[in-house]
Amino acid sequence: MKIKFIGAAREVTGSKHLIVTDKGKKLLLDCGMFQGKGLETDAMNRNTMIDPAEVDCIILTHAHIDHSGLIPYFYKKGFRGSVICTPATRELCSIMLPDSGFIQENDTHWFNKKRARQGLKRVEPIYTEKDARECMKLFITTETNRRFYIDNNISVKFYNTGHMLGSACATVRIDENGHITQIGYTGDIGRYNSYLLKAPNAFPQCDYVITESTYGDRLHEKKAGVEDKLLEIIRHTCVDKKGKLIIPSFAIGRTQEIVYILNNFYNEGKLPRIPVYVDSPLATNATDIFRMHLNEFNQDVAEVLRHDDDPFGFNSLHYITEVARSKALNESKEPCIIISASGMMEAGRVKHHLANNIDNPKNSVLSVGYCAPMTLGARIVAGEKDISIFGMPHKVNAEVYDIDALSGHGDYSEMGEYLKCQNPDKVKKVFIVHGEKNVQENYANYLKENNGFKDVVIPEPGETFKV
Fold this sequence. Notes:
CATH superfamily of the largest domain: Ribonuclease Z/Hydroxyacylglutathione hydrolase-like
Number of domains: 2
Distance between the termini: 6 Å
Oligomer: single chain
Number of strands: 22
Shape: globular
Structural class: alpha/beta
Number of helices: 14
Strand order of the largest sheet: 6-5-4-3-2-1-22
Strand content: 15-25%
CATH class of the largest domain: Alpha Beta
Radius of gyration: 22 Å
């Protein structure tokens, strides 16, 4: 059996890890898009390193686009196997993948206009909204903690990781001529003190472990002061300065967590009397899916539900889907909070809000999640004062804040804690993926010293290992 690391090898996006059994069965762990490198990502996404038609099944750990976003492209290129995931992951993919296709069609339309002026050939989007909707017929769901048999010799079992709604560690058990090998793929590891989700669940002993390393060299801020800090930023921006607080946020997960915190502020009488806007059709639809899975949330949410039947809604909160209403927010001078995708500030409506508000010192920008290096979000958080949005120069005069305690990724301590369910003497090899190389090197040393793993490897893109 072999494992080939196609994506998220020595970088943070594009998760794709191919298992090829001795009998030639091809299982793809995640099928994510590369993101955040401009035009370079287009070529990276089209180079699949395998004929999609040859893949027998995709085992999907969660719905984030850097883990699921190339499934429609694989479908377009001939993939007709099954996509196996949890029910919530399928429901979220049913809105996220078409949204991704729509964005690509729209971006390509404008890009082709520019190419036409330069006398260059048209380019095609990686996939369309139609491709994304059609690929959904390949999805098969199975609950966590329940074994699903792909065939007589291969099965998969999911265990909650607390990273986002429906996220799971996938354990794949493969029987080759009576010899059983168990591979554990963590996907993205969540937090033990999430505002919404239950803590990650341990997974059974594996022979090989593939694990993420996004925050492999960082510790998050303590959760204890997060609410006070957020409330202070809101009051300073919207009450003292009478400005707008722009919160770039991933439409799935982070947005619902922020809304939940603001809902609690409202219930407690702490939220200033200002409107709060969630300006994202995707986030609006995703929130409806969250409302259908309240049983997956932690005990704190259960306590809130005893006296508040909607933790994602309050009187001054407005969900916006129409383009006209979104544009009207840019013209309005009223103090308000605008939560809008995307979290890395690379696409979506938030770029328009930044373009219209970041030059004004009355306003503030609050980053609440991971921003990959070189993204607009990372540059703004790092303190760059001269930036370009939609090809136009802007001065960052707005105040910029960062609360990384709201991140959905565990830090190196939390990720290491999660892997303590494994006896290091029984793990033959740990593969570290989904992280920047220098971060992975620090995390590899941490896992050796803290967890006792003997053989920790950082695969190169396209590298294959016999296991």
